[in-house]
Here is the input.
Amino acid sequence: MVDMDDPETVLAIGGNFGGAMTAMTGGFGSTADRLVLECKGDSPVDSVTTTRLDWIRDTFADAITEACRQAGITVRANDFAVKTIDNNDIDGGNTISSAAV
Here is the structure.
């Protein structure tokens, strides 16, 4: 037998995780947006610095996108698992033969 909190509590916790991920990635996005050069010159060093800064911002943006994608998958998997277990319990089932997200 699986011992878990009531399904509504587990689903709410999953929703809280999704909300926390959104807030966290929004904070990282704001930080990345504030990474700017105060002045841009024409020297080779300025050119390399601009290229590196663009790479840093692109890397942050890619990481934020992937973190949001993974968070969404996690929340959906949690919802699916909770509902599968709860429905099986309501139906009086002893086992879950298969389930896929």
About this structure: Residues 42 and 48 are 10 Å apart (CA to CA).
